[in-house]
Amino acid sequence: MNIQTILVPTDFSDHARRAIDYAIAIAQGSAAKVHVLHTYHLPIPLAVYGGFVIPQDFWDQARNAAARKMEKVTALLEAAGIKGESHLMEETPGYAIERVAEKINADLIVMGTRGLSGLEHVLLGSVAGRTVARAPCPVMTVKAEQSVGEKLTFRNIVVAIDFSDPSDAALSLATDIAGKFGPAHITLVHGCHIPVELEALVAQRGAPVLEKLSAHAEESLAKLLTDLQDQGISCEYVSDHGSPDRVILDVAERVDADLIAMGTHGRKGLAHLVLGSMAERVVRLAKCPVITTKCAPD
After folding, report:
1. Whole-angstrom Cα distance, residue 111 to residue 139?
2. Does 129 score more than 80 pLDDT?
């Protein structure tokens, strides 16, 4: 993965500050330029709201305050020897992130999973979740409590595998990261799960259906494992019955993962369904950074 341009959306929260730390560490390892984006926006009409007119100088003050904070962020980049550029916009965050990422041809977006409100579900639903689903490049999400350390190093990477194209892209991304920021041990994780729509049919046919699915998954995982080992990569695989997101999180905690890599669209190809039932929950609940992708890295 050739990382030349990194986009970091920020609202100046602790989580966003940690995203800056990760972006700096990644940029130092790849000589990338870091673009910092802040949007100031209120989800109410700009004219009259409940009989109260928002004065124009409110927006002027908001922009000036944000500009001063952005100067501090760019100073951090300069102190770390990183080329940086700031973007200050009056826009809805989710749309702005996607548009700026396309404009600057971003190779990676690094962002926090919570904002200043501290309401995890609000940000994931309106900003991080939308970015993970629609971003034109891989997205790394981090939390305030996840420290970079003196040098960014990934030792244990968990890769969610469902044998879809985005899953293959996540594995390719993970191997690149393992080579650049490792050495890392990669654990391939597959959750063998029967969708609720098919539970009745499977029950009629009996347990062998699930057993056949598990056997096929293990055979496919074994092939992936052999390919990785041929590349000299330390790896293993885990195949278990259960909801994929739960299996991924359990394995990540068991192996003390410092990164989870996964695709944003699964075999069904339904973005809203997959994100709602798996990727978004993993991003929200994971104790380590999560990098998501729907396309193969260059």
Report:
1. 8
2. no
